[in-house]
User: Fold this.
Amino acid sequence: MGRLGVDLYPLQTGVGLDRAETFAKFLGGSPANVAVAAARLGRRTALVSRTGADPFGVYLHRALREFGVDDRWVTEVAEYPTPVTFCELFPPDDFPLYFYRRPKAPDLEIRAEALDLDAIRAARVFWATGTGLCAEPSRTATLAALRARSGREATVLDLDWRPMFWADPAEARPHYAEALRHATVAVGNLDECEVATGERDPRAAARALFDAAGGSLRLAVVKQGPGGVLALAADGTGAEVPPLPVEAVNGLGAGDAFGGALVDGLLAGLDVETVLRRANAAGAIVAGRLACSSAMPYAPEITEALTAGTGTLRRDRDRDLDRDRGSDSDRGSDSAPDRDPDWDPDPRAVADPATATATAPGPFPGRPVADRTDPATAPTSGGTRTRATSGTGAESGAETGAESGAGTIAGKG
Assistant:
């Protein structure tokens, strides 16, 4: 649930937008990318969002369906245009973003009274982001959706801190605290954890997320960029996973690939360390590609990256897989990409959720995953630049402080 828009990425590397001459168009927005990433791994996904009543909105509906994401809860807002985001590519660790969301982004017009709360309650995983808390009516709608999920696993809050969407960082903390009280999983990088809790040390930040949640949280995931990723469970157990090397092309979207693989791992009931390793690998793969949504990896690619010890796979492997299997549009929007037949550790976890029983092992120690039916006016910025480093935390020789993702080392290419 949350942000959706069009990404326009230059096809030239190492030049500013003032010198870029050609661009490629992609579906964008972090929650939308997470839905695409999970769909690539064989999960049934849906998005709750809004677009403008314009050709870009038509494109986004078509793109969601082609990626296998249910778009029935994506509606139009006549008053506002579909947002567009540009970036610049300075690999390995500098990818400035320019958001055009004026006078207001349609995805901030999600309204509580329009939510399908039955579908939200029924989802086996629900993913919401901190961006949805930055303005009304989206803030009330996001909190209403999270409240409807109270007591249900897994309810994920991606802190998703975007400073240009808030007038003051201090304004965000109480809203994060309210949202955390209804979440069972919290995900954020060090900057986001600091805004939400005041703590920047990874372990202290994880503990502070538990404190802010007041007992609901079962898992805190803290992404440390070149420091890897840390996860702590409510019973005190946890895991810490080092970064996976990659030759960075565009770090944007790598954190969303991490999120999609995290969702897949939670549904499969994998142990925390395995979930983090697979999510790290997914993020590294996307950091080595130009696109975000269309670059999301399939399960065999994640296995390949872990086996090879690098996220740098054969160029355009994702397009080859699409061609070999038939595109999403050829299969129809209801069909999902093939899963890796050699990987799935528990076939029960990927059965049709409508008929599955609650027997899959859980992502939280001592707790099972409950199977459920799958479904899903603060000032905003326009033309606003934000420095966004590699979505998985790129590093080349010296640390870059790229803490927006899941721990990747990026070499210059």
The chain has twelve helices and 17 strands. The first helix runs from residue 30 to 40.
